[in-house]
Amino acid sequence: MHKYENEFRQIKDLIEKATNIAIISHKNPDGDTIGANLALTHALRSVGKNAISFAKDPAPAATGFLPGVSSIRSELNPSEFDLFIALDCGAAYMMKYEIEHPELLDRSQTTLINIDHHPSNEHFGNVNVVDPEASATSALIYFLIESLGITISRDIATCLMNGLYSDTGSFKHSNTDPITLKIASNLVARGADFRTIVKQQFHHNRINQLRLWGRVLSRSRINDKGATISAVMEKDFDELGATPEDLSGVIDYINSVPDSKFCILLAEDQKGNIKGSFRTQDDMIDLSKIAGLFGGGGHKKAAGFTIPGKIEQEVVWKIKPAA
Ligand SMILES: [Mn+2]
C-alpha cells in the first residue's frame, strides 16, 4: 500500500468523472515536470480520457525526443476542461496560468489535483499529493499510474525515467534512494529508452554552451563564507550566442569542490532578472531556507531564487611589493 493510497483513490474518482483533463507543468519547465506530465497524459489517454499537456513556457531542448512533447500546448482555456492536474509546481504561481485565469486558484470554481515533491508546496489543490521525500514528481506519477491500474507502456516508461534521471542529476544526488532505483529498474524492464535519455543529457552540448561553461568554470572561486561562487552576465550570453538554458548542468561541476559548504551560480536572465541557483553536498545545510531569504525556495540540497536586478563585479586590486 502506498502512503498516498487514500489520495490516489480520490484522484481515481475525479478522473473517472472527468472527460477533458488539463495536465499542467510548471513555468520554465524541467525534465521532471515534462516527463511526469507526458507520462500521465499517455496513461489517461490509454483509458479513453481527453487528456492534454500544458506548459506556459517551452519544454527544454533535452526533452525534445520524449513521445508527445510536440503536442504540449501553451495556451490554456480553463472552460474547456473539467479537471486540472498540476505537476511539480512548488507553489500555485509556478503554474503561471493563474495570472490570466484566477479561477484556477478558486477551489469552488475549478477542481485541481496538486501532485508535487517540493517542501514549499502549500497544498493549493482540492486533492494534494505532496511528498518532499519523493525524489521526483515522476516517481509519484509512477505510483499513481500503478494505483489507477493502468499499464505502463514503453512511452510512459521513457517519460517517467526522464523525470527521475533529471531530478536525481543522473542518479548522482542524495535523493537517489532505494525506491527511486527500484522504479527505475521497473521502467527499464518496461522498455524505457534509457540510452536516448543519457545521450540527450551528456552528448548533446552545443559548442556555444561549452564556451559558456568555460566562462562559468573559470570564474568560480571560494568566498569567505566557504561557498563556491560563480556568475554569468547578459553580455556573456550575447558574446557567445548562448542562452540561460545553456547553463543547465554546469552547476554540478561548481558543486564538486569537496571542502566547499555549498555553491552559488548567479546569472542574469536577459529579462532584467538575476537568477540564483544553490547546490550543496552537505547534509547539514538547508538551501531552501537560504533561497527563501531572497524570496525563492526549493529543496534542501538544491534551491534557487529570481529577483530583478543586475550583477555587479567587485574588482579588488592589491599591491604586492617585491620581497
Ligand atoms: Mn521535480
Verbal overview:
There is one protein chain. The chain is an alpha/beta fold. The protein folds into two domains: about 200 residues, inorganic pyrophosphatase (n-terminal core), CATH 3.90.1640.10; about 100 residues, Diaminopimelate Epimerase, Chain A, domain 1 (Roll), CATH 3.10.310. The protein is built from ten helices and eleven strands. It is globular and about 80 Å long. It starts with a helix and ends in a 15-residue tail after the last strand. The mean pLDDT is about 95. The chain binds manganese (II) ion. The site of manganese (II) ion (MN) has 6 residues, from loops.
Which terms summarize this structure?
2 domains, alpha/beta, 6-stranded mixed β-sheet, 323 residues, binds manganese (II) ion, inorganic pyrophosphatase (n-terminal core), 11 strands, Diaminopimelate Epimerase, Chain A, domain 1, 5-stranded parallel β-sheet
Describe, in short, the structure shown.
Helices cover 33% and strands 17% of the residues. The protein folds into 2 domains: 5-201, Alpha-Beta Complex (inorganic pyrophosphatase (n-terminal core)); 207-308, Diaminopimelate Epimerase, Chain A, domain 1 (Roll). The chain has helices at 5-17, 31-46, 137-147, 154-167, 178-189, 194-202, 207-219, 234-240, 251-254, 287-292; strands at 20-24, 50-54, 83-87, 112-116, 127-130, 221-222, 227-232, 262-268, 273-279, 297-298, 302-308.
For the largest beta-sheet, the strand count, sense and barrel status come to: 6 strands, mixed
Structural class: alpha/beta
Tally of discrete structural domains? 2
The low-confidence parts are: none
Under the CATH scheme, which architecture of the largest domain would be assigned? Alpha-Beta Complex
**Name of the CATH superfamily of the largest domain:** inorganic pyrophosphatase (n-terminal core)
Number of strands: 11
Instruction: Find the CATH topology of the largest domain.
Output: inorganic pyrophosphatase (n-terminal core)
Bound molecule types = manganese (II) ion
Strand content: 15-25%
Envelope shape = globular
Helical segment count = 10
- CA-atom Rg in angstroms: 21 Å
State the CATH class of the largest domain: Alpha Beta
Through-space gap between termini: 73 Å
- The assembly state of the depicted protein chains is single chain
What is the averaged pLDDT score?
A: 94
The helix-strand sequence is: HEHEEEEHHHHHEEHHEEHEE
* Helical residues, percent: 25-40%
